[in-house]
Write a structure and sequence with these properties.
Strand content: under 5%
Helix content: 55-70%
Number of strands: 2
Shape: elongated
Distance between the termini: 31 Å
Order of helices and strands: HEEHHHHHHHHH
Strand order of the largest sheet: 1-2
């Protein structure tokens, strides 16, 4: 889904051709990969799209890994769950957060230990995603532990903790 928005916002026709502006976020070699995704989407070939994305879960570019995981989640491709799960300890918090989203949506029975452990992650995006994932699978997390996140330094984590608790109290 995020991949689609990136493509939508960065691919612009210029006098009958197309140019891409990535502002240095992803190496120019990755543009070829994104073009393949776009062509696969246009052709409505889910299997081609799946093959390309699954191959990029091990890219050296963290944002590309995150996009691949999120896209596989949106396409509901659970065949790579074991591979995605191994990325739970990835150096990038964005990849770790994508792993939590993927596991929460596609293999919710395996999600609780990862999500609960992620409440202690040093990066706020991972802590926030862990709360969202626990809420999604309707898991009764240790309430004092979640209440402690109401005092987190990050606004998004505090808000996620607030909504998690509020939905449990309703």
């Amino acid at each position: 889904m995020m991949l689609l928005s990136i493509l939508h916002n960065t691919v612009r026709p210029v006098s009958g051709t197309c140019s891409m502006s990535w502002q240095g976020t992803i190496a120019s070699a990755s543009a070829v990969v994104l073009w393949r995704y776009l062509i696969a989407l246009v052709q409505r070939s889910t299997s081609a799209l799946y093959k390309h994305m699954a191959g990029y879960v091990h890219s050296n570019h963290a944002l590309l890994v995150m996009e691949a995981i999120d896209s596989l989640r949106v396409l509901r491709v659970d065949a790579v769950a074991a591979t995605v799960r191994t990325l739970y300890t990835h150096a990038s918090p964005y990849v770790r957060a994508a792993v939590l989203r993927y596991i929460s949506h596609l293999v919710p029975t395996d999600a609780p230990p990862l999500l609960v452990a992620a409440l202690d992650d040093p990066h706020p995006i991972v802590r926030s995603e862990a709360l969202d994932g626990l809420d999604l699978i309707d898991f009764a997390a240790d309430e004092p532990r979640v209440r402690a996140l109401l005092l987190d330094e990050d606004d998004a984590v505090r808000e996620a903790a607030h909504w998690f608790i509020k939905r449990r109290e309703a």
